Amino acid sequence: MPYLDDPRVLFAAERTLLAWNRTAVGLMGFGFLVERFGLFLHVVMRQQVEPVHRGASLAIGVVFILLGVAMLLLSVRQYRQVMRALGTQEVPPGYWVHGGVVVNLALALVGCFLVAYLVLL
User: Fold this and answer.
1) Per the structure, how many domains does the chain have?
2) pTM of the prediction?
3) Tens digits of residue pLDDT in 29-68
4) SS3 for the chain, per residue?
5) 17 lies in which domain range?
6) Cα distance between residue 66 and residue 116, in whole Å
7) Is there a domain that residue 108 lies in?
8) Residue 25 placed within a domain
């Protein structure tokens, strides 16, 4: 990566990290919605839904949530690689470059807890 002596390189990397963050949160939210939609159908139809149908919505929802968690973790890895390649000229003095990483790791942990909640309850 060429050194441009410009802090905009750092800010572009942070915007990219946060764009991955938004996409991952959207996938996790969609996964939760899919999983809960199976429960909604059960309540609306007032019938005993076969376990296969409940299992299908659960499996699809969990896959979307885990895909979001994977995106969060991969984006952290990619961002940290970019940060290692930047020189001191690209980072403003006193700027904390790890804020997005902390947020992504916290959301990945929340996603894992969400999967555990959906699977165990």
Assistant:
1) 1
2) 0.83
3) 999 999 888 777 777 776 665 554 567 888 999 999 999 9
4) CCCCCCCHHHHHHHHHHHHHHHHHHHHHHHHHHHHHHHHHHHHHHCCCCCHHHHHHHHHHHHHHHHHHHHHHHHHHHHHHHHHHHCCCCCCCCCCCCCHHHHHHHHHHHHHHHHHHHHHHC
5) 10-120
6) 11
7) yes
8) yes
